[in-house]
Amino acid sequence: MTRLPDIPRVLSLANQKGGVGKTTTAINLGTALAAIGEEVLIVDLDPQGNASTGLGIDRKSRKVSTYDVLIGEAELSEALVPTAVPRLTVAPSTLDNLGVELEIAASADRAYRLRKAIARHAEKVALDAAGREKHFTYVLIDCPPSLNLLTINALSASHSILVPLQCEFFALEGLSQLLSTVEQVKRSLNPELGIHGIVLTMYDGRNNLSAQVVQDVRANMGDAVYETIIPRNVRVSEAPSYGKPALLYDLKCTGSQAYLKLASEIIQRERRFRAAA
Ligand SMILES: Nc1ncnc2c1ncn2[C@@H]1O[C@H](COP(=O)(O)OP(=O)(O)OP(=O)(O)O)[C@@H](O)[C@H]1O
Ligand SMILES: [Mg+2]
After folding, report:
1. Which ligand has the minimum distance to the alpha carbon of residue 203?
2. Which stretch of DSSP H or E encloses residue 90?
3. Ligand 2: distance of its center to the CA of 81 in Å?
4. Residue 77 lies in a domain
5. How many independent structural domains does the chain possess?
6. Cβ(26)–Cβ(142) under 8 Å?
7. pLDDT, average across residues 212-241
8. Which of 40, 45, 68, 104, by CA, is between 20 and 30 Å from 95?
């Protein structure tokens, strides 16, 4: 098995439930981490390509995509596209990723394509005395809403998983399936995989249900749940249509501020994990 590099830290944003805030969190957490000095790569694995679009990367600029990397036609460094945010880069996705499963299903390393690509990039960085390669400290992988081979590639390539849960009725539904997939990947593909945390999203303070969901999720999942809760905020949902992260569109809005807080909580948790390792 190819060894995962220690740096960058690789985190998957995953939940097979659709519309829970995976992409919004990838974009805004990535921006917030970059804003506090980290060098961040967002790997868009979703055929919908929402993270790429939300970061202002139009279809024409996606000449090399994560699909090309997964099928072995390109190296990760060839897929990198800079964004308007300093220190934030994206490896974009296209609809081609709908076909990736068929392309690679027959090969023995089908679950390790992304892991190998990230490891090769980290090796190149280590050997790169001229400083031509982007030296990332965090990689955030935006997964599609399914537990398919794309998501398995993400989990095999990650140190840990970050699970967005929407504050709605049935928030916990499907979580046990996700957690058992994580256990399976850990046993068979990636023993290093851990749960980084669960982030509650789209919290609506005017709604009793939201508060109830927070209580339930905390009662069930304990310390795995981040302290930071992402509020429902119209500025956050408007930003992608301008091809901007919320933090660039409106830094002061409650959503942007929450993502900044989440970023520092994540860095603190990372330090704790490393100290314990
Ligand atoms: N904090 C928020 N406040 C308001 N709207 C939000 C917030 N977070 C996400 N949304 C909106 O909710 C919808 C779903 O969010 P998002 O696309 O991030 O979810 P997802 O889990 O990536 O979805 P998919 O499963 O389709 O990939 C989007 O329209 C997004 O703009
Ligand atoms: Mg998404």
Report:
1. 1
2. strand 88-91
3. 19
4. yes
5. 1
6. yes
7. 96
8. 40
Share the mean pLDDT of the chain: 95
- Point out the ligand nearest to the CA of residue 16: 1
User: Relative to the CA of 203, which ligand 1 atom is closest?
Assistant: 1
Report the residue among 22, 24, 44 best suited for mutation to probe ligand 1: largest number of ligand atoms under 8 A from its CB: 24
Domain at 265, CATH number = 3.40.50.300
Which residues have any ligand 1 atom within 6 Å of their CB?
Answer: 18-24, 46, 50, 145, 201-202, 230, 232-233, 236-237, 255
Ligand 2 centroid from CA 225, angstroms:
20
φ and ψ of 91, to 5 deg: -105, 105
Task: List the structure tokens of 12.
Answer: 């998957």
Which atom in ligand 1 lies closest to the alpha carbon of residue 233?
3
Amino acid at 123: E
Confidence of residue 42 (pLDDT cuts 50, 70, 90): very high
Question: According to the model, what pLDDT value does residue 131 have?
Answer: 84
Q: Is 4 contained in some domain?
A: no
Does 2 fall in a domain?
no
**What distances in angstroms separate CA 261 from CA 35, 92, 97, 169, 227, one per listed residue?**
12, 26, 33, 25, 9
Residue ranges making up the domain that contains 141: 9-276
Minimum-distance ligand 1 atom for the alpha carbon of 26: 18
pTM: 0.97
Let me know: does 185 contact 152? Beta carbons within 8 Å.
yes
